[in-house]
Amino acid sequence: MMTMVLKGLSALGFIAVSAMFLIWLERKVSAWIQNRLGPMMTGFQGTLQPIADTIKLLLKEDIVPKGVDFLSWWLAPFFVTVPVVMAFLVIPFSSKWIVLDLNVGVLYICSVTSLCVLGIFMAGWGSNNKYSLLGGMRSAAQIISYEVPLLLSVLLVVMQAGTLSMQGIIHAQAHGWFILKPQLALAFLIYFISATAEVNRVPFDIPEAESELVAGYHTEYSGMKFAMFFVAEYTNMFIISAIAATLFLGGWQGPWLPGVVWFLIKAYGLIFVLMWMRWTLPRVRMDQMMSFAWKVLTPIALLNLLVGGWFMLK
Amino acid sequence: MSEWVFYFISLCACIFAVLAVTQRDIFHCALWLAMTLLSVAGIYFYLDAAFLGVVQILVYVGGVITLFVFAIKLTAHIGYKSIRQTSKQWAISLFITMLLLSILFRVFAQNPWASIALEHSSTSVAQIGKSLMTGYALPFEFMSVILLAAMVGAIVIGKVKK
User: Which residues does chain B have within 8 Å of residue A112's beta carbon, measured at their own beta carbons?
Assistant: First the structure.
């Protein structure tokens, strides 16, 4: 009981530190890609900038606009943040560092992260702002659509490993990562594209397209509530990268270095790719994105599942 | 200590359920219903039925409630109104409900509840899959036919007539 509580608390601490680090990293990566310096003033290379930002957000006034739908307005930040924290229950940092190795781990992560849709929609609706509502609507439609290919690609991994437990899937990759198998390499690509859409990142960032929607569903939020959306967004990024590392890149397995280090290298490497994409690619249009999900990605994922399953039977 | 978790979650489920049927804003009702279903999922997790809890969240909260919310928001004329939750016959229905409740209470009170010690009962996903593909294959396939029919029906209804 006590160890469980301690494990949970350390997961919480990790979420806060990781989100702060990722926000700094995003600003730095964007700056380097655009030939700028990025934050430089606070600390070496601006490393203390996220701490300064956190203090600023803690001290900010919590502005409640007129005419908000109070219940959804207040509940939305929690609905977005709590699932993210819950997902950390089954993320295997190393062979021992996992809060609880549920025997339905993969399914568990997929189900709790599906709660975020509701939170985003509540934020969009509750704000009583047309940009927020548009952002919320777009986001919900996008997340629901891309969940289909995402789950189909995850299913192939489950079929290959023969288990739903996160540790079990890593153990199944002892003799070669899943990404090295041809049918699973395609599944990885499908997973990565749909996961990018799931966390509303460029090129699928139309829910918060700054140039048309201000900031989408969290336009009206300020202070700590805004910070909660921000933390949830960056932690979601970590979660999808951690799942990708677990399902396709062998998790914490690797030579010489301890498991935790390997896991974090893989996860943050994928996050770097996500950031790289964000500052390189343009944004797609709403109709392009939806037709891509339903007319291209889902059929390919289904076909991949069929062909991959056939190869596994042989 | 552990059973207090159960009582707490059950209390939450009851409160949210009452809120879900008494609130006037239909969007709020859907949200409270989501909270109720989440509490029920919590009870499943507490009872060591992780698979059931996960499916509860995935299907009910992630799927059905999201669909509800979409439907409410897309039909603009019910999203903004505050609707009465009771009809004109609420007094009669309250009487009948109370009658039913008292009967149920009497049955519960008279029934000698035998406590059966379950051996480790957390059913594995493999077992569920196996029984769906063997013993319960016909009901399972029947369900998918019903779902297909519902989907085709929805498309036909939703089709814009030219």
Answer: 57
